Amino acid sequence: MIGNYLIGLREGLEAVLIVVLLVAYLNKSGRKHLLPRIWTGIAVAVLISLGFGALLTFGPKGLTFEAQEMIGGSLSIVAVGLVTWMIFWMAGAAKTLSSDLKSQVDKVADSSTLGLVLVGAFAVGREGLETALFLWAAARATGETWQPLMGAFLGIMTAIFLGILLNRGVLKISLSKFFTITGALLVIVAGGVLAYGVHDLQEAGFLPGLHNLAFDVSHIIAPGGVTGTLLKGIFNFSPATTWLEAIVWVAYVVPVMFLYLRKVFASPAKSVKSKNA
Question: The pTM is what?
Answer without folding.
Answer: 0.72
